[in-house]
Write a structure and sequence with these properties.
The structure holds two protein chains of two kinds. By secondary structure, chain A is mostly beta strands. Helices cover 0% and strands 51% of the residues of chain A. In chain A, strands 2, 4, 5, 6, 9, 10 and 11 form a seven-stranded mixed beta sheet that branches. Chain A has a four-stranded antiparallel beta sheet with strand order 1-3-8-7, with no helix packed on it. In chain A, a hairpin with a 3-residue loop joins strand 5 and strand 6. Chain B is mostly beta strands. Helices cover 0% and strands 53% of the residues of chain B. Chain B contains no helices and eleven strands. In chain B, strands 2, 4, 5, 6, 9, 10 and 11 form a seven-stranded mixed beta sheet that branches. A four-stranded antiparallel beta sheet of chain B has the order 1-3-8-7, with no helix packed on it. The radius of gyration of chain B is 13 Å and the shape is globular. Chain B starts with a strand and ends with a strand. Classes of the chains: A mainly beta, B mainly beta. At the A-B interface, strand 4, strand 5, strand 9 and strand 10 of A face strand 5 and strand 10 of B.
Chain lengths: 106, 116
């Protein structure tokens, strides 16, 4: 099974910061990766699909990149409403979520 | 507006069964693959099961294979998860989600607690 490792587990940042969240696969997942945002007490929301495609309605400050085993979610200018836990998800072989990165305000 | 509404959760003893439902509205249910995804209290997300639009393809996580059965009734716009031989580690909030992936719409979830 493919393992997905997200880092860091917890990230503290200030409003306006550029934030980078990492997701590493145990083997090549051929860009078959999505990113989800889950705010406290809410259902997850799709942010990015197939590595770098912004879901409709998601602010353009969110972007995704990567290839092979290494993938990144970037928030260009952190906003208070971005406080959430972020999960990556691979569907190249089996279907696996990463453990999540909890994003907090400093 | 797309809506997914789960029901059927509750407190159940280990070894017993429970059946979850997810009623869909606001889109043509029969055109989409559907999933169950769960989240144990304070933990991350775990994909549980997938069923294709016409029920031809069904996949399960290894942790539930042989115990859980996903099904759907396209005439009733409803997705199901039959859970048997429940264990304490099945305690979680169960979401239904639309997609092949990606999972573009999610319900609000239904809680299943397995405890004696």
């Amino acid at each position: 099974d493919i393992q997905m490792t997200q880092s860091p587990p917890v990230l503290s940042a200030s409003v306006g910061d550029r934030v980078t969240l990492s997701c590493k696969a145990s083997q090549n997942i051929n860009k078959n990766l999505d990113w989800y945002q889950q705010k406290h007490g809410e259902a997850p929301k799709l942010l990015i699909y197939y590595t770098n495609n912004l879901q409709t309605g998601i602010p353009s400050r969110f972007s995704g990149s990567g290839s092979g085993t290494d993938y990144t979610l970037t928030i260009s200018s952190l906003q208070p409403e971005d406080v959430a836990t972020y999960y990556c998800y691979q569907y190249n072989s089996g279907w696996t979520f990463g453990g999540g990165t909890k994003l907090e305000l400093k | 507006e797309v809506q997914l509404v789960e029901s059927g959760g509750g407190l159940v003893q280990p070894g017993r069964s429970l059946k979850l439902s997810c009623v869909a509205s606001g889109f043509t249910f029969s055109n989409y693959g559907m999933n169950w995804i769960r989240q144990a209290p304070g933990k991350g997300l775990e994909w549980v099961a997938y069923i294709s639009s016409g029920s031809s393809y069904i996949y399960y996580a290894e942790t539930v294979k042989g115990r859980f059965t996903i099904s759907r009734d396209n005439a009733k716009n409803t997705l199901y998860l039959q859970m048997t031989s429940l264990r304490s580690e099945d305690t979680a909030l169960y979401y239904c989600a639309r997609g092949e992936p990606p999972f573009d719409y999610w319900g609000q979830g239904v809680m299943v607690t397995v405890s004696s």
